[in-house]
Structures
1.
Amino acid sequence: MYSDPVGRRIKIINNLMKRSMDKFFGQRPDRATLMHTWILGFLQNRQDAGKDTFQKDIEAEFSINRSTTSEMLKLMCKNGMISRVPVDYDARLKKIVLTEQSLKFNRELSRKMNELDKILIKGLSESEVETFLKLCDKLIDNLNESL
């Protein structure tokens, strides 16, 4: 029977990341999941760069489909992590911005995520990390091509 060695390891790493984050951060008041945390970081980086962010940007960045993204953003709005704000140049568009609550949490979150990243890559050389990232990008490209 085929055991899918690459996909299985990716799933194991994903599970361990979720468990590590839960242990490392504890229960966040806004009930952010690991994916929410990554989205909040993405939003913070884009806001810091002066870029507006829309749902399609999140879909593209994280390779998640439209309905999943929409539901996740609704939950994040409900939990006070983000707001959807109309833009003056297109009545159909609403940019996604961080709330004051999330801006406060992001400072601490960023510090803790950097610590978690150090734990994740402990014992790896810079070259190994670069190789890993290149391999992951190739796997992502391969899967995107097959869709």
2.
Amino acid sequence: MPQKILFVEPSAPGLHIFTKFAIPRLGSLLLATIAQDKGYSCEIVIEDIRPLSLNGLGQFDLVAISTITPTAPRAYAIADICRERNIPTIIGGPHATFCSDEALEHSDYVMRGEAEDAFAQFLDVFSSGGDVSAIPNLSCRSNGTIVHNPLLPCITDLDRLPHPDFRLIKGGMKNILRGTIIPVQTSRGCPYDCTFCSVTAMFGHKYRFFSTDYVIDELLRHNDKPGSFIFFYDDHFTANRKRTYELLEKMLLNNIRMKWSAQVRADVARDKELVKLMKRAGCQTLFIGFESINPESLTNMNKRQTMYEIEQSIRVLQENKIAIHGMFVFGFDEDTPETCRATVKFARRHNLDSVQFLLLTPFPGTHLYEQFNRENRILFRDWGLYDAHHVTFQPKNFSTFELQLMQIKAHKKFYSRIRLMRHLLTFKLEQSVINIYAHRLNKVWKKMNKPYIKELSLKIDEAT
């Protein structure tokens, strides 16, 4: 019977703007808490916080690895080492869900989709030495044949899940540029179906919410911790306006003093009173996927968002002194070098506090991946490059080299020395720190990726 379980979130190989803001995903935390409640001894290693000690793997009876696409190579390397040492392994997370056959080349088991209930069933059978081949959500080999068992329905009563036990994380959760950033999830699912996003394939089209009391209870667990900062993991924090009002008002009523950030859509600005309430309740920064200022790109990515909504959201949030982290994507078929340059000018003109200019990436599980796969436009399947900072497909209106340079130059242009001086002269210290950090990160990224960039440039030479 397995008594000790190691949960691992592997690190990605590349650098990006959040490299120093290590925030654990909640999947491993919830599974480890569930296992602990069932009597198992559990540890969690988040490699972005603390490196995994390979020498210590032998003390564990089961290793559970959670992977997104860019961490898949490292996840597979860990699983391969475990297999060599006869340590049972199970891999889950979005990438393993959509590439389960591939994951089974390295791991004994794959847990697909929303895993809390299925993983609990797996532990019950596995720990007693029983046959796990019929466990829901599980992919495995049975009598030499790969079996993919049906998925359980998504959990409707989210309140029956335990509060994640952050004490299980080895090394704690301190970040370099801020104190302890605590992830909190108040909902799952998304009714939107953007072509480049895998959220709906993983968690469904229907919004499901934790109750307000459940979320308040979670926040109160951290309210007295000095330097704590909340990041709401919801894909769309204000999806249900009535429920958001209720949550924010109860946060004020319960004297929740922590500052917080969340991800929202641009349409949050339709309700100005809600924005004011968000500010009063401690909102510091909102992360908004603007994606593009090209209306054709917005339409064809199925974003269901207009330029008016984008500009309105910026104006309303700035009026309420809520910082904006704008996320834009380069490389849609409707994009051109001119639209990308216009996007950078737009972000500078509207004085966004911080930005990411990301590269369109065909992640497994997305409509985009299916389309580009059909069209034979996927150039690389080195999953370590799938971090939205590397060109991995053949763009329509750029060479791969041109699109990559467009992204590098966009960050350099936005996080310029002139912008830094303006922040310093107006005593915007946090924006100054972010500007310095992002400017240096862009330079380091270029240096680390010289071989990759050279390979892209050689493709142009070969074509000409």
3.
Amino acid sequence: MTYQYTSKIRWTPEDEYHGTISTEKGFTSTFDKPSEFGGKDGTLNPEDAFVASLAMCYSITVKEICDKMRLEVDDFSLTAKGIIEDGEEGKVFTKVYIYPSIKIDCPDKKTLRALELAKDNCLISRSLKTDIIIEPKIL
């Protein structure tokens, strides 16, 4: 089965931000480059969207894996941090750290297995060359 996702970009004539992105699913947002690269804060940028995309996918996959394993999760949150470094061909995301915090009444070993399976089964993480490091906190 094939799935397709379409985004449309429109540049803005103002200098307030670079443009607008809209998806066929109804999401619309202004965007710019990050302030570190000359853009303005307070709007979506590709670097944050990259890290956020991985974080969202991983979170959804954790939920699906825990449901399949019949694990009762009391609380879940995560922070994701992408690292950009100079590479041979320019700047590149070299690592993304994911710090999940999970409150669960289950043996740590089984919970750690669920978190690792989520990394292995997340569509976004499987699509990246970037190293993804999971550093969980089990409560």
